[in-house]
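Dear support,

I submitted the protein below through the web form. The confirmation email said the job was done, but the results page showed an empty box. After a refresh the structure appeared. I'm attaching both so you can tell me whether what I see now is the final result or a partial one.
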Amino acid sequence: MKMRHVLLEVYCENNTTEPPLCCNEGLGKPGYHCLAGNCPNVSYTQAPFELAYAGEYGVVPDPDARVGFGGDMFPIDKDEEKEVKFKELWERICRQKIQEAHDEYMKQVKEI
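What the results page shows now:
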């Protein structure tokens, strides 16, 4: 079996008064259960260029646990070549920080 991690933004359209059976966390709290239950209120989109910490159930717990490439990170002059270079830089930094987090964790575990 092959495996791949996929980052999605999941939305609850909250367009019903009665929560569907799959709605085990209540309306407005979307998650994997919505996708698995084919909820009529669920929609989702890709989460490109995101770096995130996912908790116990693979859900990012709050906005401070994620950051994405966007907003003030785009070149001011809308230069597409610069944007490509900026995204490549973002990828390098993200991969480096992921490795640094692992290394730091392993170091601190040894101290406990």
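Response: this is the final, complete result; the empty box was a page-load delay. The CA atoms of residues 12 and 42 lie 5 Å apart.
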